[in-house]
Design a protein that fits this description.
17 helices; 4-stranded antiparallel beta sheet; alpha/beta
């Protein structure tokens, strides 16, 4: 337009008609399956190599207190998509559930505004979504890979893409970690595991799969660079819940709920930002919707962009929960937990302490022993320790597989593995009571059924929809096989000691 008046008039009326002068950002969501904080190089882990995650942290923001809404795949992923706490998602608060359809996902909101949406590998799940009216996974229409998605994407259309890796979910190929060059002696073993080379080797195999996820995520980012779309893409890299080991995944201790998280978006996030405030996975959906310039009315989370811009928010604590993980108690029973975590303490409420948090020793032939804990050599070694605790030493079997009191309180600074329950110590009663009060208030404000009826059986009765069940196995034989047949290095003859 050569006439300045016509140009001014066009811009004026364009603004009145709601036409945005800012290009909407793409969104690339990279989610691992069972990866715990602090297992990344940028967090100080000396063994696992995560150059892609470390790069995103250096070029964007690194979060040190990011927490999943629930330490279980389906409810965690539902909360990411819906921006709502698990107890607000009805059946979606359970593993192997039906995806709730009462409220829109961020994917649906973006699609309605013209975004091209897709996913690959593990989206929301495990569970069923067709029965509630979805024609494809709620994370987006499935594509073979990111390249196929980009090929089909209409030119210049903004996109949202979910890359759902299945790493580092079990099962592992034994010895892959050590064969890749990682060393047993370099592993930091959490205090709630026995420290022996057998467990260290299991952790190295877990690290191997973290590295594979990191490598594949880097390949997707390289595609964005080649397209010239990198700086107009919000990149989020995280995990759904904690590592598949005892007292981690499916638990509200840090190794079950505290997640790696890095976000890169040059338009809003200054390179090298470190965020120590507490964030919850319910914050992702409102952040994505706001970034696209859209509104939402059904989400419980807070957008992250104001926080990243330096605005002070109420993020001194985070609220956590779980209901039924696997079907591992007679009668399909849940194991409910609610928790509040701040910089100093973790308070956990177990409203049905008579139930077993790890699942029953055996439910029926088709379900594994203590089935809320994924089968692993670490699990079997700890199971073998039943009744063998030494005086003045932690009872590792009890910590992983025993019943728990109704209330738990941990000093997270002095007890980072949350092994010493301070619930009954008078010196901490005021702290416990205040955290309990805050937790109950949050439950009531967010419509948690357990605020009204602590022993509600709602999540016991929700349909369990599995096509997978853990099988009972001869775990003592499994330990022996693992000990005497590792095909590598100096252990080829003597084997890795498991006790």
């Amino acid at each position: 337009m050569k006439n300045p008046f016509l140009l001014f008039a066009f811009l004026f009326f364009a603004s009145l008609s709601g036409i945005s002068q800012t290009k909407q950002p793409n969104i690339l969501f990279l989610i691992a399956d069972d990866w715990s904080f602090p297992h990344a190089g940028v967090y100080g882990d000396q063994v696992v190599r995560t150059p892609t995650f470390d790069r995103l942290a250096a070029e964007g923001a690194l979060f040190t207190n990011a927490y999943t809404a629930s330490p279980s795949c389906s409810p965690s992923r539902a909360s990411i998509l819906l921006g709502r706490y698990p107890h607000q998602n009805e059946a979606g608060g359970n593993l192997w559930s039906e995806f709730p359809n009462a409220n829109p996902t961020y994917v649906q909101i973006l699609e309605a505004d013209g975004y091209f949406a897709g996913s690959t590998r593990k989206g929301w799940g495990p569970g069923e979504y067709q029965v509630t009216g979805f024609s494809h996974n709620p994370a987006g229409k499935s594509f073979e890979d990111f390249e196929a998605f980009l090929t089909e994407r209409p030119k210049d259309q903004p996109f949202t893409f979910w890359f759902g890796s299945t790493d580092p979910h079990r099962e592992y190929v034994p010895n892959t970690g050590i064969q890749s060059g990682m060393k047993l002696q370099d592993v930091t073993v959490p205090g709630f595991f026995p420290d022996n080379d057998c467990v260290r080797n299991d952790i190295l195999d877990y690290y191997f799969e973290i590295e594979r996820f990191d490598r594949e995520a880097g390949q997707l980012i390289a595609m964005l660079e080649e397209m010239g779309e990198l700086d107009n893409t919000i990149i989020v890299m995280t995990s759904d819940n904690g590592m598949p080991f005892p007292r981690a995944k499916a638990n509200l201790y840090d190794y079950g709920t505290r997640m790696p998280l890095a976000i890169r978006w040059p338009e809003k996030v200054k390179a090298g930002t470190v965020v120590n405030d507490f964030v919850n996975f319910v914050d992702f959906a409102p952040s994505f919707v706001e970034a696209a310039g859209l509104d939402q009315k059904s989400m419980s989370g807070q957008s992250l962009w104001a926080l990243l811009a330096g605005e002070k928010q109420d993020r001194a604590q985070v609220y956590l929960e779980r209901e039924r993980h696997a079907n591992v108690r007679k009668g399909d029973l849940s194991y409910p937990m609610r928790a509040i975590r701040n910089k100093d303490y973790l308070y956990i409420w177990n409203p049905m302490p008579e139930r077993n948090p790890a699942g029953n020793p055996t439910v029926h032939q088709s379900v594994g022993q203590y089935g809320d804990v994924d089968h692993s050599i670490t699990k079997f070694v700890i199971m073998e320790m039943e009744g063998k605790a030494k005086p003045r030493q932690p009872d590792l079997f009890q910590l992983s597989f025993g019943q728990r009191p109704e209330e738990e309180l941990y000093d997270v600074k002095n007890d980072p593995y949350q092994m010493k329950n301070l619930d009954s110590e008078p010196a901490f009663s005021a702290i416990k009571n205040q955290m309990k009060t805050d937790l109950v208030k949050w439950m009531a404000e967010t419509g948690d059924l357990r605020a009204m009826d602590p022993r509600s059986t709602y999540w016991d009765q929700v349909r369990y929809t599995p096509d997978y069940q853990m099988k009972d196995i001869d775990w003592k034989k499994k330990i022996e096989e693992y000990r005497i047949k590792p095909p590598f290095g100096k252990y080829a003859k003597e084997g890795i000691p498991c006790n």
